Amino acid sequence: METDWAELEITTRLVDDFYRGNVRLAGEIRQRVGRWGATTEDRARLRMNFDHQAEQEAEQAAQDAATDLDEELFKMLSE
Q1: CA-CA distance, 15 to 20, in Å (whole number)?
Q2: Which segments in the chain show pLDDT lower than 70?
Q3: Which of 3, 6, 32, 66 has the fewest Cβ atoms within 10 angstroms?
Q4: CA distances (Å), 76 to each of 26, 56, 68, in order?
């Protein structure tokens, strides 16, 4: 969503200012990234969970794509 990206942009600017020496922003940054589930505790508080089956399917798809590329390359080199 547009508002999500705007929030992330603001946070990025705060982090940039923090690294330039404005350490007073540390608490604000912590609160903002916490809302996005930055740590395990944040994700538990937000009741976030991840579907392990979806992760496994994505990994399998990546492996299949790599295998397809290997086979295609082998065919090209064998011709």
Answers
A1: 9
A2: 50-51, 53-54, 66
A3: 3
A4: 54, 30, 12
